[in-house]
Amino acid sequence: MIEFSSVTKYYEDDAVLKDVTFTIDKGELAFITGPSGAGKTTLLKLIYCDERPDKGQIIVAGWDIGKLKQKTIPFLRRNVGIVFQDFRLLSNRTVFDNVALALRIHYMNTSTIREDVTAVLKEVKLGHKANTYPQHLSGGEQQRVVIARAMVSKPTVLLADEPTGNLDIDNSQIIMGLFREINARGTTVLIATHNHGLFHGTGRRVFFIKDHSIEKEVIG
After folding, report:
1. Whole-number Å distance between alpha carbons of 13 and 212
2. Residues 132-174: pLDDT tens digits?
3. For residue range 56-115, what is the model confidence (pLDDT) as tens digits?
4. What is the model's pTM?
């Protein structure tokens, strides 16, 4: 589902990722970890084509990232949901509208949007907050809106960048529970985190990045 083969990425003259090779299988839930600045966020950006590799090959859901034309990238991104640490919710839009935006850009009809958004908000237990604005939500609730927004398009791959970085332990557990449920339905999930507590004891594969390369792979 996600394949990196000898991938290197430079920012100016500095290598942010060096000769990175790994594979995430279809339907897998896995973790990327390492210190700040190790390259975790850049790795995710390469997957959803916000950055392009300078060397090597990346395959995501059958798409060769290095060969994608700019006009084709939106089709890739329909298959990739993204959960950001800083939420990136629109403060002047309700919870419903923040989630619906992902469907409206694909010109889906109003009734389908209403049905799909209502269903996904129910899944993340925020159906009663549909008409609320983000600034009136707790941090955990805002992150659940972000997950709903990422999932409403029914992506085959879900990426999460430090999804619990701003949350307390209880909310972190809720968010991880949602990721497990999403994965159980067949979505491939890759989570970048510096928090070892998220993957300890999960039995999932964990890739450690150090000095901009994959140092080791272990079972959490």
Report:
1. 14
2. 999 999 999 999 999 999 999 899 999 999 999 888 899 999 9
3. 999 999 999 989 999 998 888 889 999 987 888 999 999 999 999 988 877 678 999 999
4. 0.92
Neighbours of 139 (CB within 10 A): 13
**3-state DSSP call for residue 83?**
strand
**Residue 51: C-alpha distances to residues 19, 25, 58, 209 (Å):** 16, 22, 11, 18
Q: How far apart are CA 95 and CA 99, in angstroms?
A: 6
- Beta strands (DSSP E) in the chain are 2-11, 14-24, 29-33, 55-60, 63-64, 80-83, 157-161, 188-192, 205-210, 213-219
Q: Which residues of 177-204 are buried (b: 16+ CB within 10 A; e: fewer)?
A: ebbeebbeeebbbbbbbebeebbeeeeb
